[in-house]
Structure of 4-carboxymuconolactone decarboxylase:
Amino acid sequence: MSEREQVGREVMLGLGIDPDAVIASVAPLDDRFGTTIVEYAFGDIVSRPGLDLRTRQLVTLALLAAQGGCGPQLDTHIPATLRAGATRAEIVALFVHLTPYVGIPRSLNALYQAKELFAAADSQEGTP
Amino acid sequence: MSEREQVGREVMLGLGIDPDAVIASVAPLDDRFGTTIVEYAFGDIVSRPGLDLRTRQLVTLALLAAQGGCGPQLDTHIPATLRAGATRAEIVALFVHLTPYVGIPRSLNALYQAKELFAAADSQEGTP
Amino acid sequence: MSEREQVGREVMLGLGIDPDAVIASVAPLDDRFGTTIVEYAFGDIVSRPGLDLRTRQLVTLALLAAQGGCGPQLDTHIPATLRAGATRAEIVALFVHLTPYVGIPRSLNALYQAKELFAAADSQEGTP
Amino acid sequence: MSEREQVGREVMLGLGIDPDAVIASVAPLDDRFGTTIVEYAFGDIVSRPGLDLRTRQLVTLALLAAQGGCGPQLDTHIPATLRAGATRAEIVALFVHLTPYVGIPRSLNALYQAKELFAAADSQEGTP
Amino acid sequence: MSEREQVGREVMLGLGIDPDAVIASVAPLDDRFGTTIVEYAFGDIVSRPGLDLRTRQLVTLALLAAQGGCGPQLDTHIPATLRAGATRAEIVALFVHLTPYVGIPRSLNALYQAKELFAAADSQEGTP
Amino acid sequence: MSEREQVGREVMLGLGIDPDAVIASVAPLDDRFGTTIVEYAFGDIVSRPGLDLRTRQLVTLALLAAQGGCGPQLDTHIPATLRAGATRAEIVALFVHLTPYVGIPRSLNALYQAKELFAAADSQEGTP
């Protein structure tokens, strides 16, 4: 295992993202690309000093929400952003902050997805 | 002047953005829209509690860089983000952070613009 | 209730969009943003003189279709555009008109959604 | 000359767009594509019944402004939209109308380009 | 039937895309647009000499994956690209190739869709 | 120098792109990111087997043209695509092929840039 992969795996585990699940999700198609994601996105980029992880994750959410069509990625990164120390209220404030720059539809769709994720997490927690 | 406009103007002045210049830039076309930008973008949204101004501005830069074609807005918001307390190094780290999510071209173009703005600011300062 | 909210609510009701439903849809996350949408999008912008409501709504549909991933917004705005005085044939002509400028996929996806909405409305009407 | 090309040429001339200039602009690269644009965009699509030309052109402007990076196309289509019967005030209202759906930057950049085009037209007219 | 439509139909049939199904899918809304797609996209453009069909289809997949929200079009064009002579491995390599230019989310979403399509094709084939 | 960087440098040199120039272009801002581009974009991704370099470069051009605002990247990658074995006519055919999928404006802007680059190359060659 490369050093970059080790760094990437640590960053992912700190965010509650399972690197082996990411790798497995593309393994039937390509036996290398999943590892490249771990090495590059998390090992080379997200692990960099210069910006704290909480801010990085808020920016990641903004980029995913703004481009649209990233439902699966928001499912992964909304919980990861909470793990990185952001609060639900900050994630909501973030998605509201998008509107002057990319318009209301992208903002609302991200808020609706956050609402469902938060509700699902609460109902799971509340299960006796 | 509405309370929202007052709030918006204060936020803008804190970021080193001149509200009257924004209003004047569209005034030959529309005598109301510039004020709406002050009231809405800065008075309603950016002024909200729930996310600190420095984080907001970093997110704004990410959204401008990611959508491309926002050179004039980056010219305004890169200095504004420095005013909001972010460092040059954080802005650079932010633009590098874009790459796994929106690709290298948007990231590089924002970095090149930042490089020119920083150099222009330094050379202005260095003028005896 | 602000004057802008009152204006916005009237515009929305004229389009058959329930302002309280919009506000309620984000209320679990944020008690203010729904009202901001009413005030800003409908009170400040859509209510403006200078462009008739039917043209505005056709433009809104074009913008939603062109950016993709706005299914929920098209569900709201296709009926609203009919309320504003456009015909089904005009909405179809509009989505066809997109193709030279943004390509066929965005156009087809909007047409498929319109087809389903029109069929659902017809079958509901036909219910004895 | 195909019937579609004839129809396309008439539509273009009605909008003040020179079909031969469009064809010439790509002729050094491809001797067919310019004609395809005339035939398809203007002959097949813009010439269709079902939506009046003024509304079509306003929608075209909205699509060009919203995707960004279409300066050369706005240079062509802003005057064409005036030719189609829209007023300057309507074009301004249109660009302002973009903001709730695609954000303020795209709206402002289109307004700035319109401002320059209008000023250039006025100064040309004013030349003694 | 125009010559362009004939050419377009042949290209489509060679790709395993049924022109009548495309025409039928929009016929309830517009009795002409489906034919325009056959004539223009396949008759005027894809049929052109200058680039082989396999390369054209790989480029088409890249464009659909990169803009997001084109699930229905990928469902049509992934099998069509296999028909044009590309292998599954090349389609996977293509979607991986997107990442430096448009980011990992668009790449992953296309890969996930390809994975499902390939699995569905295999299970259908494997049915005794 | 990592093995990935070595691989990336070889790929770049084969395409006529100077890795040291890329690294130098961001070095005043960040002493690591330029190397990451060499390692990741060219070492990890473009160097992969599974798709020939000429096809990869044509896809890269399509992605750059389609997203707009990538003038500097097209300046680099149009010559690189010629180096990879594609002809000028294929690049033109590629940009024409974009239109059914992303619209005519993105296609035309890429063609105009190619026209200028080709003319500049020819005039340079023609200099006695």
Remarks:
- Residues 52-128 of chain A form a domain with the AhpD-like fold (CATH 1.20.1290.10).
